[in-house]
Amino acid sequence: MPHRPPKDVQEAAQRAERWIEDGKAGKGFTDTGRRRASQLAAGEEVSDEVVKKMQAYFARHSVDKDAEGFTQGGEGFPSPGRVAWDAWGGDAGERWVGTIDLD
């Protein structure tokens, strides 16, 4: 079943796309992150498989929120971790996929 990302998820991904263009993504940024940002920024529907990947991403990377440069106004903002976080939909994306039960 396809899932359409809400507006706040699209906005986070659009912000990430701007940061990526500005060279803020860092050397370790993946093609998968770029694709996800593009997909979510455009408001494209995502599959159950992508929702599972997003759920796993947020579970794995929530610790990145404690790193330097993650929070607006902090030194080094936006860190590559923050760029990646927003590429996957940011806090809004984490909330959104957290409400989707795939079982």
TrEMBL record:
Q: Which domain of life is it from?
A: Bacteria
Q: Where is this region: Disordered?
A: 21-43
Q: What is this protein called?
A: Uncharacterized protein
Q: Which organism is it from?
A: Nocardioides cavernae
